[in-house]
Amino acid sequence: MKGMATYDLMEAIRNTNEWMGASARAFASYPVWGMVPHPMFKVMSAWGRVTERSFARMVIKPDWNITSVVAEDGRDHIVEEVVELARPFGDLLRFKVHGRPEKPRRVLLCAPMSGHYATLLRSTVASLLPDCEIWVTDWHNARDIPVSEGKFDIEDYTLYLTDFIRHLGPDTNVIAVCQPVPLALAATAYLAELEPESQPRTLTLIGGPVDPDAAPTEVTDFGERVTMGQLEHLAIQRVGFKYSGVGRLVYPGLLQLGGFISMNLERHSQAFADKISAEAHGQGGERDKHNRFYDEYLSVMDMTAEFYLSTVERIFKDREIARNEFMVDGHKVDIGKITRVAVKIVEGEKDDISAPGQCLAALDLLTGLSDAQKASHVEPGAGHYGIFAGKSWRNNIRPLVMEFMDTHSDDGGGARRLKVAASNG
Q1: Which superkingdom (predicted)?
Q2: Tell me: the pLDDT tens digits for 113-135?
Q3: Any residues with CB less than 8 A from the CB of 65 and at least 6 apart, and which?
Q4: pTM of the model
């Protein structure tokens, strides 16, 4: 049972740290210590609270917490999460706004499957929801998917996207963030050639590795240094008996989290030291900036071994998308077949994960589009997360993306789209 012992060992270590935090918090918070004028007990209690919460978050899927949205009538309208298409490895999730006329902008957000849940795009969804109808690819944690459901690699991911786009129809605006960028491009090309009537209206690609060699980063350097055999040996484990996916080969979320934190270890260490100090001084809050960020950042999910390994081998090492040699279900995808889907590229000037140039490489592959159907934007001073969340996204990038969708709102026609637009205004 290759890797099962190490998988359970990691979970045991996480569980032990959570228990130690809870024990320290309970012990140091005992009322009798109020009679002892020593700051050690306040620091111990603060350390325990922060430690318990941090390690507990690692196995909890965050909630979307998008409960209402203000419409043009000035009233709050209830937002309901509705699963429109249920699949073993991920669902098509709609944020349905009750009591509001349907918006003409229909947006499919392709969330990354790169260690975090789709809720990483919570602020992106919240910022678009007042002006758009929103669907999200809500990927499942591989540890919870029985082995009997079969494999899931990047070809399966691409086919999931084609199913979701086909379901939503040709008046859909697809926005892909980070990891799914090259696969959303491939899914669009796949539909353009085999089912042209199902193509989306626009495609916005945000900070993804279309051509990792266009601008090397620490991520791409790692992919070059390690062999596939080494990667499989070091990263792949087998889900333990605690979960429904027992026996499935995965790249564990806890292992991924260790990699995330090691990339910025000094910054994360300082953030937790500051949080413990604030708690010890009675200045901590349940929903302060630290907790809002780390409740999401520390919540990680396993991804299937075949998805992770095929991503590294085919996207980063062999550069199949960059060379326009990507195969899906036995069919060679030709990105040049995209002829009527307007494409916009968004990159961050200081993105250290998908550096500027990696995503922009998509425009050179889109030989079937005119210059008027292509657009690009590099956001000054923005890092990786800043191009889909935070101030840079809200104030600069979001308005540009909305304008791009509106500019190409009539591309490809569509009676339904025109009807919805007319009824809206």
Answers
A1: Bacteria
A2: 988 999 999 999 999 999 999 99
A3: 122
A4: 0.90
